Protein backbone atom coordinates (compact mmCIF):
# COMPACT_ATOMS: atom_id res chain seq x y z
CA UNK A 1 0.00 0.00 0.00
CA UNK A 2 1.42 3.41 -0.92
CA UNK A 3 2.02 6.09 1.70
CA UNK A 4 -0.63 8.23 -0.01
CA UNK A 5 -3.37 5.56 0.26
CA UNK A 6 -2.29 4.74 3.83
CA UNK A 7 -2.64 8.40 4.78
CA UNK A 8 -6.03 8.53 3.12
CA UNK A 9 -7.21 5.52 5.12
CA UNK A 10 -6.05 7.19 8.35
CA UNK A 11 -7.86 10.36 7.36
CA UNK A 12 -10.99 8.24 6.85
CA UNK A 13 -10.77 7.28 10.50
CA UNK A 14 -8.96 3.93 10.46
CA UNK A 15 -5.55 3.82 12.16
CA UNK A 16 -3.81 0.54 11.39
CA UNK A 17 -0.77 1.54 13.47
CA UNK A 18 -3.00 1.85 16.55
CA UNK A 19 -4.36 -1.61 15.80
CA UNK A 20 -0.84 -3.03 15.63
CA UNK A 21 0.03 -1.41 18.96
CA UNK A 22 -3.11 -2.88 20.54
CA UNK A 23 -2.00 -6.34 19.43
CA UNK A 24 1.44 -5.80 20.97
CA UNK A 25 -0.10 -4.70 24.28
CA UNK A 26 -2.38 -7.74 24.51
CA UNK A 27 0.14 -10.37 23.39
CA UNK A 28 1.37 -11.46 26.81
CA UNK A 29 -2.15 -11.78 28.27
CA UNK A 30 -3.35 -13.85 25.33
CA UNK A 31 -0.22 -16.04 25.27
CA UNK A 32 -0.77 -16.90 28.94
CA UNK A 33 -3.89 -18.88 27.92
CA UNK A 34 -1.92 -21.04 25.48
CA UNK A 35 -0.90 -24.58 26.23
CA UNK A 36 1.04 -26.90 23.92
CA UNK A 37 -2.16 -27.45 21.89
CA UNK A 38 -1.99 -23.92 20.46
CA UNK A 39 0.10 -23.44 17.31
CA UNK A 40 1.33 -20.21 15.79
CA UNK A 41 0.90 -17.77 18.66
CA UNK A 42 -0.79 -14.39 18.26
CA UNK A 43 -1.36 -12.54 14.99
CA UNK A 44 -2.09 -15.26 12.45
CA UNK A 45 -5.00 -15.16 10.04
CA UNK A 46 -6.45 -18.21 11.78
CA UNK A 47 -5.87 -19.79 15.17
CA UNK A 48 -4.61 -23.36 15.23
CA UNK A 49 -5.46 -25.84 17.97
CA UNK A 50 -4.22 -29.43 18.19
CA UNK A 51 -7.20 -31.73 18.85
CA UNK A 52 -5.21 -34.97 18.96
CA UNK A 53 -6.58 -35.54 22.47
CA UNK A 54 -10.00 -36.18 20.91
CA UNK A 55 -8.62 -39.46 19.54
CA UNK A 56 -9.02 -40.78 23.08
CA UNK A 57 -12.76 -40.13 22.95
CA UNK A 58 -15.06 -42.97 21.95
CA UNK A 59 -17.37 -40.57 20.09
CA UNK A 60 -16.35 -36.94 20.49
CA UNK A 61 -18.92 -34.23 19.96
CA UNK A 62 -17.96 -30.60 19.50
CA UNK A 63 -19.99 -27.98 21.37
CA UNK A 64 -20.03 -24.36 20.28
CA UNK A 65 -21.47 -21.12 21.60
CA UNK A 66 -21.39 -17.46 20.59
CA UNK A 67 -22.60 -14.37 22.46
CA UNK A 68 -21.88 -10.82 23.54
CA UNK A 69 -22.46 -8.86 26.73
CA UNK A 70 -25.27 -6.60 25.58
CA UNK A 71 -25.59 -3.03 26.79
CA UNK A 72 -23.39 -3.63 29.83
CA UNK A 73 -20.66 -2.17 27.62
CA UNK A 74 -22.39 1.21 27.99
CA UNK A 75 -21.58 1.18 31.72
CA UNK A 76 -17.92 0.37 31.06
CA UNK A 77 -17.72 3.14 28.50
CA UNK A 78 -19.41 5.68 30.78
CA UNK A 79 -16.92 4.94 33.59
CA UNK A 80 -13.95 4.45 31.25
CA UNK A 81 -13.30 1.12 32.98
CA UNK A 82 -12.71 -1.73 30.56
CA UNK A 83 -10.81 -4.45 32.44
CA UNK A 84 -13.82 -6.49 33.59
CA UNK A 85 -16.10 -6.58 30.55
CA UNK A 86 -13.93 -9.36 29.09
CA UNK A 87 -14.85 -11.67 31.97
CA UNK A 88 -18.49 -11.00 31.23
CA UNK A 89 -17.93 -12.09 27.64
CA UNK A 90 -16.25 -15.34 28.68
CA UNK A 91 -19.02 -16.00 31.18
CA UNK A 92 -21.69 -15.60 28.52
CA UNK A 93 -19.88 -17.75 25.96
CA UNK A 94 -17.85 -20.42 27.74
CA UNK A 95 -20.38 -21.09 30.51
CA UNK A 96 -22.90 -22.05 27.82
CA UNK A 97 -20.48 -24.76 26.68
CA UNK A 98 -20.42 -26.49 30.08
CA UNK A 99 -24.24 -26.72 30.11
CA UNK A 100 -24.03 -29.81 27.89
CA UNK A 101 -21.17 -31.22 29.95
CA UNK A 102 -18.47 -30.17 27.49
CA UNK A 103 -14.98 -29.03 28.38
CA UNK A 104 -14.04 -25.80 26.57
CA UNK A 105 -11.09 -25.97 24.20
CA UNK A 106 -10.63 -22.55 22.66
CA UNK A 107 -12.25 -19.16 22.14
CA UNK A 108 -12.02 -16.25 19.71
CA UNK A 109 -13.17 -12.67 20.27
CA UNK A 110 -14.35 -9.74 18.16
CA UNK A 111 -14.25 -6.07 19.16
CA UNK A 112 -15.91 -3.44 16.99
CA UNK A 113 -15.12 0.16 17.90
CA UNK A 114 -15.32 3.69 16.55
CA UNK A 115 -11.63 4.32 17.19
CA UNK A 116 -8.87 1.97 18.31
CA UNK A 117 -7.41 3.17 21.59
CA UNK A 118 -4.66 0.60 22.17
CA UNK A 119 -4.72 0.68 25.98
CA UNK A 120 -8.51 0.28 26.01
CA UNK A 121 -8.47 -2.66 23.62
CA UNK A 122 -5.65 -4.23 25.64
CA UNK A 123 -7.70 -3.87 28.85
CA UNK A 124 -10.69 -5.58 27.25
CA UNK A 125 -8.64 -8.46 25.87
CA UNK A 126 -6.68 -8.85 29.11
CA UNK A 127 -10.01 -9.38 30.88
CA UNK A 128 -11.01 -11.97 28.30
CA UNK A 129 -7.66 -13.72 28.67
CA UNK A 130 -7.79 -13.84 32.48
CA UNK A 131 -11.24 -15.39 32.38
CA UNK A 132 -10.20 -17.83 29.66
CA UNK A 133 -7.33 -18.96 31.86
CA UNK A 134 -9.71 -19.44 34.79
CA UNK A 135 -12.01 -21.62 32.70
CA UNK A 136 -9.22 -23.59 31.02
CA UNK A 137 -9.92 -22.10 27.61
CA UNK A 138 -7.23 -21.08 25.11
CA UNK A 139 -7.79 -17.66 23.54
CA UNK A 140 -6.42 -18.43 20.08
CA UNK A 141 -7.63 -15.59 17.90
CA UNK A 142 -9.58 -12.41 17.61
CA UNK A 143 -10.30 -9.29 15.62
CA UNK A 144 -10.48 -5.61 16.39
CA UNK A 145 -12.37 -3.61 13.78
CA UNK A 146 -12.50 0.16 13.54
CA UNK A 147 -15.84 1.48 12.24
CA UNK A 148 -15.58 5.28 12.09
CA UNK A 149 -18.82 7.01 11.25
CA UNK A 150 -20.80 3.94 12.27
CA UNK A 151 -19.72 3.69 15.91
CA UNK A 152 -18.81 6.72 18.04
CA UNK A 153 -15.11 7.17 18.83
CA UNK A 154 -15.40 6.08 22.47
CA UNK A 155 -17.90 3.29 21.89
CA UNK A 156 -17.36 -0.40 21.22
CA UNK A 157 -19.09 -3.75 21.28
CA UNK A 158 -17.63 -7.15 22.08
CA UNK A 159 -18.59 -10.65 21.01
CA UNK A 160 -16.97 -14.06 21.07
CA UNK A 161 -17.30 -17.71 20.20
CA UNK A 162 -15.97 -20.85 21.85
CA UNK A 163 -15.66 -24.54 21.05
CA UNK A 164 -15.62 -27.44 23.50
CA UNK A 165 -15.79 -31.22 23.39
CA UNK A 166 -17.79 -33.91 25.18
CA UNK A 167 -18.28 -37.66 24.89
CA UNK A 168 -21.56 -38.40 23.12
CA UNK A 169 -22.76 -40.62 25.94
CA UNK A 170 -21.92 -37.96 28.54
CA UNK A 171 -23.99 -35.13 27.10
CA UNK A 172 -26.17 -33.57 29.78
CA UNK A 173 -29.75 -32.67 29.02
CA UNK A 174 -33.44 -33.03 29.69
CA UNK A 175 -33.48 -36.69 28.61
CA UNK A 176 -31.48 -37.63 31.71
CA UNK A 177 -33.80 -35.90 34.18
CA UNK A 178 -36.06 -38.11 36.29
CA UNK A 179 -38.98 -37.72 38.68
CA UNK A 180 -37.62 -36.81 42.10
CA UNK A 181 -34.46 -35.10 40.85
CA UNK A 182 -33.52 -32.05 42.90
CA UNK A 183 -32.97 -28.61 41.38
CA UNK A 184 -29.97 -26.80 42.86
CA UNK A 185 -29.45 -23.06 42.47
CA UNK A 186 -25.92 -21.69 42.05
CA UNK A 187 -25.52 -18.11 43.23
CA UNK A 188 -24.82 -15.30 40.80
CA UNK A 189 -22.37 -12.48 41.47
CA UNK A 190 -24.91 -9.86 40.45
CA UNK A 191 -26.71 -8.96 37.23
CA UNK A 192 -24.10 -10.78 35.13
CA UNK A 193 -24.75 -9.52 31.57
CA UNK A 194 -28.50 -9.56 31.18
CA UNK A 195 -31.19 -6.97 31.70
CA UNK A 196 -28.98 -3.89 31.37
CA UNK A 197 -31.35 -2.15 28.99
CA UNK A 198 -33.94 -2.25 31.77
CA UNK A 199 -31.36 -1.09 34.32
CA UNK A 200 -30.33 1.85 32.17
CA UNK A 201 -33.97 2.80 31.60
CA UNK A 202 -34.72 2.69 35.34
CA UNK A 203 -31.74 4.88 36.23
CA UNK A 204 -32.37 7.33 33.41
CA UNK A 205 -36.01 7.72 34.46
CA UNK A 206 -34.84 8.41 38.01
CA UNK A 207 -32.14 10.86 36.92
CA UNK A 208 -29.37 8.70 38.39
CA UNK A 209 -25.90 8.69 36.82
CA UNK A 210 -23.47 5.78 36.85
CA UNK A 211 -20.95 7.84 38.81
CA UNK A 212 -23.54 8.71 41.46
CA UNK A 213 -23.07 7.18 44.90
CA UNK A 214 -25.77 4.79 46.09
CA UNK A 215 -26.34 5.15 49.82
CA UNK A 216 -28.00 1.73 49.94
CA UNK A 217 -25.20 -0.05 48.08
CA UNK A 218 -22.27 1.85 49.61
CA UNK A 219 -20.56 2.27 46.22
CA UNK A 220 -21.32 4.07 42.99
CA UNK A 221 -24.01 2.72 40.73
CA UNK A 222 -21.45 2.07 38.03
CA UNK A 223 -19.23 0.02 40.32
CA UNK A 224 -22.18 -2.12 41.39
CA UNK A 225 -23.34 -2.62 37.81
CA UNK A 226 -19.88 -3.57 36.52
CA UNK A 227 -19.49 -6.48 38.97
CA UNK A 228 -18.07 -9.23 36.70
CA UNK A 229 -20.09 -12.28 35.78
CA UNK A 230 -19.33 -15.29 37.96
CA UNK A 231 -17.58 -18.08 36.04
CA UNK A 232 -19.06 -21.53 36.59
CA UNK A 233 -17.14 -23.70 34.14
CA UNK A 234 -14.25 -24.85 36.35
CA UNK A 235 -16.35 -25.69 39.44
CA UNK A 236 -18.90 -27.56 37.32
CA UNK A 237 -16.27 -29.51 35.42
CA UNK A 238 -14.68 -30.55 38.72
CA UNK A 239 -18.09 -31.72 39.93
CA UNK A 240 -18.72 -33.68 36.73
CA UNK A 241 -15.31 -35.34 37.04
CA UNK A 242 -15.94 -36.63 40.57
CA UNK A 243 -16.52 -40.40 40.26
CA UNK A 244 -19.22 -40.58 42.93
CA UNK A 245 -21.08 -37.48 41.78
CA UNK A 246 -20.56 -36.70 38.10
CA UNK A 247 -23.02 -39.24 36.71
CA UNK A 248 -25.70 -37.98 39.08
CA UNK A 249 -25.72 -34.53 37.48
CA UNK A 250 -28.43 -34.81 34.86
CA UNK A 251 -28.84 -31.34 33.38
CA UNK A 252 -27.52 -27.81 33.78
CA UNK A 253 -28.99 -24.43 32.92
CA UNK A 254 -27.29 -21.07 32.49
CA UNK A 255 -29.65 -18.32 33.69
CA UNK A 256 -29.18 -15.63 31.03
CA UNK A 257 -31.66 -13.87 28.74
CA UNK A 258 -35.22 -14.92 29.49
CA UNK A 259 -34.80 -15.10 33.23
CA UNK A 260 -35.22 -17.77 35.83
CA UNK A 261 -38.18 -19.97 34.91
CA UNK A 262 -37.63 -20.00 31.16
CA UNK A 263 -34.00 -21.08 31.34
CA UNK A 264 -34.72 -23.89 33.79
CA UNK A 265 -37.67 -25.10 31.69
CA UNK A 266 -35.32 -25.56 28.71
CA UNK A 267 -33.39 -28.36 30.48
CA UNK A 268 -36.38 -30.31 31.84
CA UNK A 269 -38.22 -33.02 29.91
CA UNK A 270 -41.64 -32.42 28.46
CA UNK A 271 -44.30 -33.56 30.92
CA UNK A 272 -42.26 -32.64 34.00
CA UNK A 273 -42.70 -29.63 36.25
CA UNK A 274 -40.93 -27.81 39.08
CA UNK A 275 -42.00 -25.22 41.58
CA UNK A 276 -38.99 -23.07 42.46
CA UNK A 277 -39.27 -21.79 46.03
CA UNK A 278 -38.35 -18.11 46.28
CA UNK A 279 -38.10 -18.42 50.07
CA UNK A 280 -34.85 -20.39 49.72
CA UNK A 281 -32.77 -17.31 48.90
CA UNK A 282 -32.50 -13.57 49.38
CA UNK A 283 -31.77 -11.58 46.20
CA UNK A 284 -28.72 -9.33 46.55
CA UNK A 285 -29.29 -5.70 47.59
CA UNK A 286 -28.65 -4.44 44.03
CA UNK A 287 -31.80 -6.18 42.79
CA UNK A 288 -33.91 -4.82 45.63
CA UNK A 289 -32.59 -1.27 45.26
CA UNK A 290 -33.22 -1.29 41.51
CA UNK A 291 -36.76 -2.55 42.07
CA UNK A 292 -37.35 0.14 44.68
CA UNK A 293 -36.09 2.86 42.33
CA UNK A 294 -38.37 1.52 39.58
CA UNK A 295 -41.32 1.22 41.96
CA UNK A 296 -41.85 -2.41 40.96
CA UNK A 297 -41.58 -5.81 42.63
CA UNK A 298 -38.74 -8.29 42.41
CA UNK A 299 -41.21 -10.78 40.98
CA UNK A 300 -41.85 -8.54 37.98
CA UNK A 301 -38.17 -8.82 37.00
CA UNK A 302 -37.95 -12.64 37.10
CA UNK A 303 -38.09 -12.85 33.32
CA UNK A 304 -35.26 -10.32 32.90
CA UNK A 305 -32.80 -10.53 35.80
CA UNK A 306 -31.29 -13.62 37.44
CA UNK A 307 -32.14 -12.21 40.92
CA UNK A 308 -29.26 -14.10 42.50
CA UNK A 309 -29.33 -17.43 40.62
CA UNK A 310 -26.78 -17.69 37.82
CA UNK A 311 -27.01 -21.42 37.11
CA UNK A 312 -29.19 -24.43 37.89
CA UNK A 313 -28.04 -28.01 38.32
CA UNK A 314 -30.58 -30.84 38.23
CA UNK A 315 -29.18 -33.78 40.17
CA UNK A 316 -30.24 -37.16 41.52
CA UNK A 317 -31.43 -37.00 45.16
CA UNK A 318 -28.49 -39.02 46.51
CA UNK A 319 -26.02 -36.51 45.01
CA UNK A 320 -27.50 -33.35 46.52
CA UNK A 321 -25.25 -33.07 49.57
CA UNK A 322 -22.09 -33.94 47.65
CA UNK A 323 -22.85 -31.53 44.81
CA UNK A 324 -23.59 -28.70 47.24
CA UNK A 325 -20.36 -29.41 49.13
CA UNK A 326 -18.28 -29.55 45.94
CA UNK A 327 -19.63 -26.32 44.48
CA UNK A 328 -19.58 -24.44 47.77
CA UNK A 329 -15.95 -25.46 48.33
CA UNK A 330 -15.20 -24.03 44.88
CA UNK A 331 -16.61 -20.67 45.98
CA UNK A 332 -20.09 -21.01 44.48
CA UNK A 333 -22.88 -20.89 47.11
CA UNK A 334 -25.41 -23.59 46.18
CA UNK A 335 -28.77 -24.63 47.63
CA UNK A 336 -31.87 -26.70 46.72
CA UNK A 337 -34.86 -24.79 45.34
CA UNK A 338 -37.26 -27.46 44.08
CA UNK A 339 -37.95 -31.05 43.08
CA UNK A 340 -38.78 -32.33 39.59
CA UNK A 341 -42.12 -34.09 39.29
CA UNK A 342 -43.90 -35.92 36.49
CA UNK A 343 -47.15 -36.31 38.45
CA UNK A 344 -50.22 -35.17 36.58
CA UNK A 345 -51.40 -31.68 37.51
CA UNK A 346 -52.79 -28.47 36.06
CA UNK A 347 -50.03 -26.21 34.82
CA UNK A 348 -51.76 -22.85 34.88
CA UNK A 349 -49.23 -20.16 35.76
CA UNK A 350 -46.24 -22.30 34.74
CA UNK A 351 -43.76 -21.33 32.06
CA UNK A 352 -43.34 -24.22 29.62
CA UNK A 353 -40.21 -24.51 27.52
CA UNK A 354 -38.44 -21.53 25.95
CA UNK A 355 -36.43 -20.43 22.90
CA UNK A 356 -37.91 -23.11 20.68
CA UNK A 357 -37.38 -25.92 23.20
CA UNK A 358 -40.52 -27.85 24.14
CA UNK A 359 -39.32 -28.59 27.64
CA UNK A 360 -40.74 -28.86 31.12
CA UNK A 361 -42.86 -26.45 33.14
CA UNK A 362 -41.57 -24.09 35.83
CA UNK A 363 -43.11 -21.52 38.10
CA UNK A 364 -41.78 -19.58 41.05
CA UNK A 365 -43.72 -19.77 44.30
CA UNK A 366 -43.47 -18.26 47.76
CA UNK A 367 -41.84 -15.00 48.83
CA UNK A 368 -38.19 -14.06 48.64
CA UNK A 369 -36.24 -14.19 51.88
CA UNK A 370 -35.68 -10.71 53.24
Automatic annotation (TrEMBL):
Its EC number is 6.3.3.1. It holds the Pfam family AIRS. It is found in: Cytoplasm. Gene3D superfamilies: PurM-like C-terminal domain (3.90.650.10), PurM-like, N-terminal domain (3.30.1330.10). Residues 62-166 form the PurM-like N-terminal domain. It catalyses: 2-formamido-N(1)-(5-O-phospho-beta-D-ribosyl)acetamidine + ATP = 5-amino-1-(5-phospho-beta-D-ribosyl)imidazole + ADP + phosphate + H(+). Residues 179-344 form the PurM-like C-terminal domain. Keywords: ATP-binding, Cytoplasm, Ligase, Nucleotide-binding, Purine biosynthesis. One of its GO terms (molecular function) is phosphoribosylformylglycinamidine cyclo-ligase activity. It is an enzyme of class 6 (ligase). HAMAP family: AIRS. Belongs to the AIR synthase family. PANTHER family: TRIFUNCTIONAL PURINE BIOSYNTHETIC PROTEIN ADENOSINE-3, TRIFUNCTIONAL PURINE BIOSYNTHETIC PROTEIN ADENOSINE-3-RELATED. This is Phosphoribosylformylglycinamidine cyclo-ligase. The lineage of its organism: Bacteria, Bacillati, Actinomycetota, Actinomycetes, Micrococcales. The gene is purM.
Amino acid sequence: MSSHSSSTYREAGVDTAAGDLAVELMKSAVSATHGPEVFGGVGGFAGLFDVSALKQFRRPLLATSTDGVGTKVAIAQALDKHDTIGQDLVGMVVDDIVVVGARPLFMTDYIACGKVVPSRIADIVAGIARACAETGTALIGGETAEHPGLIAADEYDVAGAAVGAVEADSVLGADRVRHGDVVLALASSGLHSNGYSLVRHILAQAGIGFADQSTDLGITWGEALLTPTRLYTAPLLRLLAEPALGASVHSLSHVTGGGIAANLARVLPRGSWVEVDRATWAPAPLFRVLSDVAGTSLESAEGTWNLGVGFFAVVAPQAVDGAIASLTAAGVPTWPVGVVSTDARELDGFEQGAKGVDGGAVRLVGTYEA
